[in-house]
Amino acid sequence: MLRYVIRRLISLGLSLLVASALIFSVVELVPGDPASFMLGTGAQPETVAALRQQMGLDLPLPLRYLHWLGGVLTGDLGHSFTYKTPVAGMILDRMQVSLPLALMALALAVLIALPIGMFAAARRGRTGDTAVMGATQIGIALPNFWFAMLLVLLFAVNLRWLPAGGFPGWSHPGAALKSLLLPAVALALPQAAILARVLRSALVETLGQDYIRTARAKGLTAGQVLSRHALRNALIPVLTILGMQFSFLLAGAIIIENVFYLPGLGRLIFQAITQRDLIVVQSAVLVLVAAVILVTFLVDLSYALVDPRLRK
């Protein structure tokens, strides 16, 4: 098990290094000069040159990458060209919204998908299975931003149970959780539909194995066979989907964040791109990629915990 973990850690470090080089290169290849964009079209050439020197844009590309990478390794992500504040602090502030939102949405997706997937698998080919699969197909097809607007109309405008948008900060935990509840539900619905279908397929395949028939022959009920034997052995594809979903929820919630006016990380990246604030874009995207790679690493470890054969 230790050798397995060490190999995965080495792979994680190499993946982060390659990802940092790709992110820096792609962002730098974007057309346009940040200094000229910030000063406007009427700026004098010497003023633009002075700003480029101040921003370090006059240095060779490899040297700029090494400076940026060295800062990342020491925890210094640089300063925003637009906001004149440390990028690390900006990302940390936005992560206080995006990370709880992603965790809430993932928890809701699991709580919805687990019983639904098990219910459909236990009634394969029956009316209940058909109804569940049809409902999950609708859940996948519905755009989450459209569902989010419906939630706002129902629970915020008509019933006035929850806020329609904004984030009051974690100094008021109750109000903060209430402000994240609607966007979390909007994000969780399509993810729960996907997860339920994957779980149902994995369980149906597992229920056809020989050891399941042996468990039934020993006198175990259908529910005991499903929960004690089939579920654990069907978790490998489910864990894969969970890892992918968390990465998507953390990085891909920009539309939902704009619908609910949440100051999350996705919205920060969108604003930085429109303002040509390259240092913010590079650092924020690298944080998201690092989170994806870390989640993938944790999913790999969970594989080994669920299936001991994978430890070898």
TrEMBL record:
InterPro entries with a match to the protein in the record: BPD_transp_1_N, MetI-like, MetI-like_sf
Bilayer topology term: Multi-pass membrane protein
GO molecular function: dipeptide transmembrane transporter activity
Regions that span the bilayer: 99-122, 134-159, 179-199, 234-256, 284-306
GO cellular component entries: plasma membrane
CDD domains: TM_PBP2
A Pfam family of this chain: BPD_transp_1
Gene3D superfamilies linked to this entry: MetI-like
Keywords per UniProt: Cell membrane, Membrane, Transmembrane, Transmembrane helix, Transport
Record-annotated ABC transmembrane type-1 domain positions: 95-299
PROSITE patterns reported in the protein's UniProt record: ABC_TM1
Location of this chain's protein in the cell: Cell membrane
Family under the similarity heading: Belongs to the binding-protein-dependent transport system permease family.
Protein name: Binding-protein-dependent transport systems inner membrane component
Lineage: Bacteria, Pseudomonadati, Pseudomonadota, Alphaproteobacteria, Rhodobacterales
